[in-house]
Please model this.
Amino acid sequence: MLHVFKALADESRLRIISVLAQGDFNVNELIEILRMGQSRISRHLKILADSGVVTNRREGNWIYYALAPLQEQSDLAGLLRIAVQSMKASQLYEKDLQHLESLVQRRRALSQKYFDRVGPEWECLQREVLDSASYREPALAYLPADKESVVDLGSGAGLLLPALLGRFKNVIALDSSQTMLKVAADYVQKQAAKAAPRCEFRLGELEHLPIHDRSVDAAMASMVLHHVSNPANAIAEVHRILRRGGTFVIADLLEHNIAEMREKYADLWLGFKKSDLNKWLTASGFSVQKTEVLTHETMKVLLIQATKN
Model:
């Protein structure tokens, strides 16, 4: 542990740890948040990585840094909590969080602007990479059929909504784009007019769901987490809104290296490792029940069913 204490014995490195406690960021983002030079940040990141406190992953041309995954009760996890807590009394901590929030808000704004622009064309654009019909039915099969309510997180064009209305009494369609909600509402009206009154459309972010605690039985996140700035926070929010024993189904891209999807489709993540999603689910209080990987010509889709403990 001596090398860990040495790594933490520096205010700049404590600032980096406090920022990474809020999510994963690349070097350019850390430069913007911390207002430090690249060489300085890179040097501190190397020290933290060598000590086992920080890990990194490559996504296309970018390298993202994160706090090392740790057992909640481990000595190192406790030490990191103390390190982050010690920074909260610093004025730099408040400034860093303000810069971090500005960056995250810009990520969200760019994503929302993109989906407001593409609107009805989204399904056609998505087919350039993956036909949603290929994973939609398997994902729906992971949902319970005898529950009252479900929320479709990032409902997009609303293609899942008619099927959800056939399985649940009440459906909430949530999206961060008003344009996409309008597209989804029109689709439901055309495909399931009689059931449309049972579908409520809400504008909101996955990291701050406008839904009461323990108020829904199930949640579906279909091809939406890779558009979210902090998927771990979104997963924690889903845990908050689900009733005890509630079901959470994720359908998303398995990790890939097609970097141009960031620009073309407003992707913030180039898919996910199964281990990362499992880690975030477990940390939030879910038990993973089933996982499956669907292989297609250009992409692999990861399906996960989790239950709120």
